[in-house]
Amino acid sequence: MNTNEKESLWYAIRQFIYLGGCFGVILLEHSLASVLKGQTFREYGVVENLQLCEVLLSCAIFLVLAFYKKNFRNLSIIFAGLCALAACRELDSFFDRLIPYVGWRLGFLFVFAALVNALLHFEQSRSELFLFLRHPSFEIMICAMILILPVAQCVGHRRFIVDVLEEEHVGRIKELLEESLETIGYFVLLCSALELFCKHDGSKKG
Predict the structure, then answer these.
(1) Following CA atoms 137, 143, 17, 67 in sequence, which dihedral angle do they give, to the nearest 10 degrees?
(2) Could you report the per-residue pLDDT of 23-68, keeping only the tens digit for each?
(3) What is the b/e burial string over 67-104, where b = at least 16 CB atoms within 10 angstroms of the residue's CB?
(4) Is pTM beyond 0.90 here?
(5) How many angstroms separate the CA atoms of 106 and 103, rounded?
(6) Could you read off the pLDDT of 143-157 as tens digits, one per residue?
(7) I want to staple 104 with a disulfide (CB 3.0 to 4.6 A). Which of 88, 132, 154, 206 is the partner?
(8) What is the gyration radius of the CA atoms in the chain, in angstroms?
(9) Contact 78, 114 (CB under 8 A)
(10) Cα-Cα-Cα-Cα dihedral of 31, 17, 82, 175, to 10°?
(11) Which of 192, 204, 183, 205 is nearest to 75 (CA)?
């Protein structure tokens, strides 16, 4: 096989590994539910801690990319900031008690600082952005955003569930849909970070 064929094969293998990981996350949730029952998605529970680990690991990978790979330095800092914001959101109860009136919104400071850094190096950031739009990691990140935002938040929306089931007491159903989908979405985001790390030159598969 020539170089392009080897790169394409390795790219395909990574995608199947990510797919297998998604099945693994779902099976893990099933296993946890068989043991924890109604407590599966409780505050500070195993699933919430798993989500936190996923976003913190993604954040760590993006920070490593920012300082180890020059191709996406400013963009990686922005992604790390967004992951830090997501981590704060997952710890909303903790931050609401720690910092009243501000709470988890403190995480926006990470995003703000990352955007200021990008603007201070505008030309480099612009170049990184267009390079990233051609990168396989962008496609995976879009899939993650679809799962985390419109799917998890909107399909798991209380009013939507109440309208369909005509039942006001839908708390656990809402948790089941929203939290399980978020967990998978955060895992796909982690896959995006890993893909950016594995294939950082911005070229498409051959």
Answers:
(1) 30
(2) 999 999 999 999 999 899 888 899 999 999 999 999 999 999 999 8
(3) eeeebbbbbbbbbbbbbbbbbbbbbeeebeeeeeeebb
(4) yes
(5) 6
(6) 999 999 999 989 988
(7) 88
(8) 19
(9) yes
(10) -20
(11) 192
